[in-house]
Amino acid sequence: MMEWIGGSGSLPEVLCVIGARPNYMKMAPLLEAFARRRPCVPTRLVHTGQHYDTAMSDQHFQALDLPTPAIALGVGSGSHAVQTAEIMRRFEPVLDESAPGAVLVVGDVNSTLACALVAVKKGVPVVHVEAGLRSFDRTMPEEINRVLTDQLAELLFTTEAAAAENLAGEGIPAERVRFAGNVMIDSVLRHLPRATPADQTLNGQCPSGYALVTLHRPSNVDDPETLCRLLQTLVKVAERLPVVFPVHPRTRARIEAVGQQDWFAQPRIHALPPLDYLAMLGLLREATCVLTDSGGLQEETTALGVPCLTLRDNTERPITVEQGTNTVVGTDPLRILANVEQIMISGGKAGRVPERWDGHAAERIAKEVALWLEKRQRRTA
């Protein structure tokens, strides 16, 4: 494992916050890029414990070559209010003891907003990586986290050029915004040669192709009617193409709660436990198509050129639709099945890789953060 934590440079320390598994893929290239700067940007990694499955966390940390967090808050599960409040309560003394030059947060999970809010109230500047993404659906908890974090941040890094328009429309000055590209794609491109072959993960069960499925959004799995409709639609998909479904623990619990545990025994449905990053990357690379409600998978499929059907009515990543391989299909069975059939016939959307999704976003961010910290030092000297 590379040693990315800390450093002997003269720049002030940056506390880098992760809380949930999607954060890991974004933070890994950033920590590496900060360490490789000369002078380096000193960092300490803080894990809030929002995703608290120790085995899964360990698998992802090892696959991504992430260092062991210097600080683990161990928050665990809870309602949005309880979890956010507990993160804030536990992060405040960390901030008091560390006195960092900045707090860097990524993405849109509860940890992102909670730590940003504590930092700004303590007078510590916030850096937000993956700023400006908008679904314009305020019923999504993540949308609230995105909007509020961007208002709190002093330095904002966007993954696509159009995100700057969203930020400008919300009154955020352009001088605080940098178009860096997508750090999640940095991880994809770096680790793709090490991805676990799909045949190995599937034990040879899907030699002629498969549809890869993920479901975890509350709008899809918490509503029994929607969940059952999607499960029955996947049975229909499986008649055309085997379905490979790494099942999130929360999703499995919801499926069992609505009395659908026998669904896992359906023909050509291959339910798997949650997978480590390299196994999932291998499945993504070799899938015929992906059906998902995950924002990150929309981006990864676009980078890999794999057709993606988003099982939501909107997306905060419109560039994956406008330029990439993604189609938003909602939860209507007829629309889902028609698009799967179209992929089987024509291969689906080819798309193209968006600007600056080139594996170097973290380097651009590290350079900008270093310059920004130097300027702040001069102003306060």
Summary, kept brief:
With 381 residues, the chain is an alpha/beta fold.
Describe the structure.
The protein is α/β, with parallel strands linked by helices. The chain folds into two domains: 14-181 and 357-380, Glycogen Phosphorylase B (Rossmann fold, 3-Layer(aba) Sandwich), CATH 3.40.50; 198-346, Glycogen Phosphorylase B (Rossmann fold). 47% of the residues lie in helices and 14% in strands. It contains 16 helices and 13 strands. Strands 3-2-1-4-5-6-7 form a seven-stranded parallel beta sheet, with helices on both faces. Strands 10-9-8-11-12-13 form a six-stranded parallel beta sheet, with helices on both faces. The radius of gyration is 21 Å and the shape is globular. Residues 1-9 have low confidence and may be disordered.
Keywords:
seven-stranded parallel β-sheet; alpha/beta; globular; 381 residues; six-stranded parallel β-sheet; 2 domains; disordered N terminus; Rossmann fold; 13 strands; 16 helices
Give me the secondary-structure topology.
Layout: E1 14-18, H1 21-36, E2 43-47, H2 54-64, E3 71-72, H3 80-98, E4 102-106, H4 110-121, E5 126-131, H5 141-152, E6 155-158, H6 163-169, E7 177-179, H7 183-191, H8 198-202, E8 211-214, H9 218-221, H10 224-240, E9 243-246, H11 249-257, E10 269-272, H12 277-286, E11 289-292, H13 295-304, E12 308-310, H14 319-322, E13 326-328, H15 333-346, H16 361-380
Parallel strand pairs: 1-2, 1-4, 2-3, 4-5, 5-6, 6-7, 8-9, 8-11, 9-10, 11-12, 12-13
Helix pairs in contact: 1-2, 1-7, 1-16, 3-4, 4-5, 10-15
